[in-house]
Design brief:
The chain has helices spanning about 1-5, 10-45, 105-130, and strands spanning about 50-60, 65-70, 75-80, 85-90. It folds into two domains: about 1-50; about 50-100. It is of the alpha+beta class. Strands 1-2-3-4 form a four-stranded antiparallel beta sheet, with no helix packed on it.
Amino acid sequence: MIILTVGTSNWDSLLQLIGVSILFIFILAITYFTTKFVGGTKFNQLKHSNFQVIETYKVSQNKYLQIIKIGSRYFVIAINKDNIQTITELDENDIMLREPLKQSIKFSEVISQITNRQKEKKQNDDQENDHK
């Protein structure tokens, strides 16, 4: 082991570091694009599906109640570790649908709002200090 470290130069170590870094970036890129592809495929399957989970309520660990929509009919189902049971069918009038969430806010917008608040607070503090 000592013979190997003595025989290598700093350039060899640098090239080895660069090679490992490029390999790491390549693996990250492949992972990213694979995840994006699989997620997009799954999203399209769910988007054009007749099945829709309306709401999920956790009763206890590994036990859930779900309101699902299949086609135009609503059902309450019980899900546990080993099986799924239909409890009842609901009328559409019995369902209180939540309004869809507003469009997602961009992270850059949130950061700019926070920085603007901090700037305003600093300006107000400076003005108060000037009046004293």
